[in-house]
Amino acid sequence: MFKLTSSKICDMSKFLSFKHELATHDVDLHPSELHGLMVGYVCGAGSELNLDQRRALYINWLDADVPDDLLTMLDAAHDQAVENLDEFANFEFRLLIPADDQPIQERAMSIALWCSGFLSGLGESGRQIDQEQGDAAEALGVIARIAAMTDEVPEGEDNEEDLTEIEEFVRVSTLLVFAETRPGRPH
Questions:
Q1: Based on the structure, what is the number of domains in the chain?
Q2: Contact 81, 93 (CB under 8 A)
Q3: pTM
């Protein structure tokens, strides 16, 4: 049985807050995709951007004038992503997706959108992952296949287990990509 932990409640609250803020400001971008975009960019470019540079990115990604409250929310998500990706974060990094009590199809679609955003953010950062980077390159190939998921996912215990495994794979793969691509690491 699924147990709602405090980190799951916090993640669910963040997802709903992002969803609400994006809808309030007529931004046509899914919260999971936006989070993936941000995390992918952090994995490729690192956390060295100053506040003005990050805000310019957010405005570009959202393709709209972005109010201060949404910019503040994005900055907080960026800072938390950087902190949770760090090697000393005890694997606290989580994807921003709907809670486990939401329909499986919505969660599967959100994971696919997160992966799509992640790959876009990594690409936009200018960071190239070549085949010599082995595990990271392989993980990105699988993330690309997940991003392309379009099949309907019916409710069921087996599908729940599969989706949990996919989410965990993406989470751990993101940590791997961050570790392999972070600035200052020898190539």
A1: 1
A2: yes
A3: 0.85
